[in-house]
Amino acid sequence: MYGTMKRKRLSLALTGCLLLLAFLTGCGSAKDESTGSVGKGTESAPQAAAADLNMVKNQSQNSASSAEKPSSGIGAGAPPQQGSSLAGQTDAAAERKIIYKANVAMEVADYGLAHTEINNLIHLSGGYLLQFSENRTDYEQSGTLVVKVPSNGFSAFLADLEKMKPKTIQRSVQGQDVTEEFVDLEARLKSKQAEEARLLDFMGKATKSEELVAFSSQIGNVQTQIEQIKGRMRYLEQNVSFSTVEIRLYQKVVKANGGQDQQEGGFASKLSGALNGSAGVVLGFFKGLLIVLAAALPVLAVVLVIAVPAYFIYRNRQKRNKKLEERAREIRSLNKASDESSHPQGGN
């Protein structure tokens, strides 16, 4: 019994010695690690700047990939927040960014008066004239106006156009929702601004010229992207704030005494139309004949060159043959007369 107790005490003592030894060993290794970390902390600033440069590249890639994800109040894949309310959803719907555009065609009785009224409406609404063109013919006087009006007065401006009481009016309204694009641009802008701040911080710690040039190039690219994003956001905000209205204003022009001339000259116009048609047919025939003669003129010239001498030769031969026939007829008549005179004498 006593030997057993002695062995237990001995084993406990050995165990305690081993634990003490392990504790001392752990303290020594911790001291070595702290010494190593102090040695690392004394490295040169250029090496630390190079490490910062690599870290910035990785962070910029991560920020670009995160900016491509849709930005909303709830993260992708995260559970919905329990504190959201219907009022918050209504506010979010009211903050949607929509670009409105309308096309209006109006026929009016007095073009000049209507044009003046539209200019007054533009000034009263707080808008401005972006483009204007005018055209006049014998049958119509028209003008096209491209107007920018505040979006909060867009519907009121269209209603004021209808109050002008035109003869006819046609209109169409289109809307383009750019909320998603605008939210994406905001997320990209925040990401790029954070990246610019990190690059400027690391550039301030760099000491080598190569590192300064690398940081400067990256900062220039990031700032260019920031300006492009801001420019697109300003463009969208301006088009959301001011809606576009394209107005075509026209008045039909009727010549004086036009109806009376049509009534009085109904038969005369038909008769003149028939005469003009007949004259046109005759004129067309002569035109065709002249064209045929013009085409046949070279052939006729060659025929005339050959035919005229041949005709004179033929005519001379006919005259000569005629003279010869007349001479032969005279000779025959003389011979006959001589024969008749000789027979009576021989009989006696």
Automatic annotation (TrEMBL):
Residue stretches making up the DUF4349 domain: 96-308
Region (Disordered): 56-88
Signal peptide extent: 1-30
Amino acid composition bias (Polar residues), ranges on this chain: 56-69
Swiss-Prot/TrEMBL keywords: Membrane, Signal, Transmembrane, Transmembrane helix
Domain of life: Bacteria
Transmembrane segments: 288-314
Keyword ATP-binding applies: no
Coiled-coil blocks: none
Protein's recorded name: DUF4349 domain-containing protein
Origin organism lineage: Bacteria, Bacillati, Bacillota, Bacilli, Bacillales
